[in-house]
Every structure is written in C-alpha cells, then in structure tokens.
Amino acid sequence: MIQLTGIQTKNSYSKELRMIEFYDEETKKRLVFLTNNMKLAASTIAAIYKSRWQIELFFKWIKQNLKIQSFLGTSKNAVMTQIWVAMSYYLLLTYIKYQTKYAHSLLTLSRLIRETLFERKNLIDILALKPERLLAVQDDTIQGALF
What we know:
The chain is 52% helix and 10% strand. By secondary structure, the chain is mainly α. Strands 1-2 form a two-stranded antiparallel ribbon. A hairpin with a 4-residue loop joins strand 1 and strand 2.
C-alpha cells in the first residue's frame, strides 16, 4: 500500500493506492502497476493492464497503418464500421501488393490508387510505373467524357 506524497499528485488523489509488481516472462521485464482496486488478485490486475496495453498497441497500429485521423461517428457501430472499412482497404492493398509483387511501400501504393482512382487505367499498368513517372503519364481519353 502506498500514498502519493507529491504536492500535485496528493491533491489529485489523496487516498491509499495499491502497488503491484509483476514479472512478465514473455518480455523478461518487471512491471509496476498502481491501482485503487483492493479486492482483485495481483495477477488479475496485471492481466487487465496487459490487455489494456494490447488495446493501446492496436489503436497505435490503426493510427499508423489505417490512416484514421478521427472517427466520423461516436456510436459503437460507427466506430466499428469505420475500422472495418479501413482494415478492408488495408488488406486489399496488401493483397494487391503481394499478388503483383509491387516493389514499393503500401503508402506509395495507396497514393497511386488515390491519384488514379477515377481514371480508366489498368491497375497492372499503373503498378508497373515508378511512382515519380506516374505524373508524367498522359491521361487516356475517357469514352463519354465531356470537354
């Protein structure tokens, strides 16, 4: 049992806390947790924190790879739908990269697709270009286009 003694920390939380030390066999690290839960077993508290860390790592991965800057809705359904759409897009990009043996990064592939999304070009032809040459390619005349 511990008590926070710092000026700001004591004012923020003046009650007694429980300090739990846990050795993680997987990472070979000693972890220290503070909790105000006095009833749960130390192993349960450690498992909760470990699970929470996995969730934090998942959201970090989402931000870095799925390019979700903010959620468009706040309901569970809206958040889940946006994550599923972004993950589907990511998986499709990965599949295209794998199937075509595309040599550049997924970010470059995503930019190529975004830049040519509304143009009638063969995806294989686009992927064969070097990214810097894509801009130099002249647009094909699209049938039915208004000029």
